[in-house]
Structures are given as structure tokens and as C-alpha cells.
Amino acid sequence: MSANEDQEMELEALRSIYEGDESFRELSPVSFQYRIGENGDPKAFLIEISWTETYPQTPPIISMNAFFNNTISSAVKQSILAKLQEAVEVNLGTAMTYTLFEYAKDNKEQFMENHNPVNSTTSISNIISVETPNTAPSSKKKDKKEQLSKAQKRKLADKTDHKGELPRGWNWVDVVKHLSKTGSKDDE
Q: What angle do CA 100, 102, 104 make, to 5 degrees?
């Protein structure tokens, strides 16, 4: 079987296996992304696998350069890529995209054991200020703007549903406290 026939068969298999799976994304017929972990999970990461022309006889290109992975240190990324590369060498010559995604899912905790979220906001703002030294007044305005921390954003996202709306009864504790305070004054 030629490499193209192998790729067509694997593509068909991947589409049927991951049909309806929100973590899987086909970027092109030879490039795929898979999110390992749930959406709000701080240890979730995204793997991108791209096939070369001679794949599966030659290794695919595995990348973790997606924006989703910005909070993961480069050392942890390199460690994950090295472990995936070992799995590639074992499976060379066979269809391995599904195997690699499953291997990453099964070993997620081990892969991310040394993960400490990197605060990418400060590095981005430093890059912006370094790249635009002539716009000093506008950068001062940006500094005054209050920004939410990652934890604050996550807390806000946890409170809202997928549409960004607060669920019904989200403030019932506050209402009960208020009523109990106002109600106790009337009793006296």
C-alpha cells in the first residue's frame, strides 16, 4: 500500500472515531489537533499532528505551538514532545495519529506533573511596550486599565453558562442574607 492510501484510510478512521468529539479538530486532510483535558482544566493542552508526504513510513510533525498552550512552560512542552516522539519511533510504519492522541490522554497527569501555569499576560505586555517605545502616552493608558487575573477570569467563566449569562438563582445566597438581616430588624 502506498503512503497516500495509508493516509486516506487513516483519515477515514479518524473522522469516524472522533465524530462528535469536541476535543478533536481536523485542520486539513493531513493536519489534526486534539485537546487533552477538559476546557476549564488548567492542565489541559493541545497537540497538533501534521502528516508528511511519506507518512506513516516517516514520522509526523508534532507541535504544541498553539495559542491554547501559552501557559505551559517550554520545558514541559519539550518533555511532552520527547515522550510523544518515543511513541512515534515505536509505531513508525503504521497509522499512529489515534495512538498518539490516546497515549497523550492516558498519560496526561504524568506529562503535566511539573506544570506550573506561566503568566503570559505580563510577557505579552512587555513585548508590546518593547515593540512600541514611541507610543508612551497610550501605553500609560493601557497600564491604568484594570485587567482580570487568570483566576478571576476562570471564576467568572465558572459562574456563567456557555452564552455568558448568569444562571437563574445565582445570587440567592445574597438575597437570603439580605432578607434575614432586614427580617430580623422587623422582629425586634
A: 70
Other Cβ atoms within 10 Å of 170 Cβ, number:
12
Specify the DSSP element, H or E, that contains 61: strand 61-63
Amino acid (one-letter) located at 171: N
> Residue 57: pLDDT above 60?
yes
Listing DSSP states for 86-121 in one string gives HHHHHHTTS--HHHHHHHHHHTHHHHTTT-----HH
Phi (first) and psi of residue 84, to 5 degrees? -65, -35
**DSSP reduced 3-state for 12:** helix
pLDDT tens-digit profile of 105-163?
Answer: 888 888 888 777 665 444 444 444 344 344 444 444 444 556 778 887 777 777 776 66
Using CA atoms, how far apart are residues 86 and 90, in angstroms rounded to an integer? 7
Task: Give, as one character, the DSSP assignment of residue 165.
Answer: P
What are the cell numbers at 22? 469536541
Contact 139, 132 (CB under 8 A): yes
- The β-bridge partners of 63 are 48
CB-neighbour burial class of residue 99 (10 A; exposed 0-12, middle 13-18, buried 19+)? middle
- Strand 31-36: give its sheet, edge to edge: 24-28, 31-36, 45-50, 61-63
Instruction: Classify residue 75 as left (phi > 0), alpha (psi -120 to 50) or beta.
Output: alpha
Block residue for cell numbers 514541559:
76
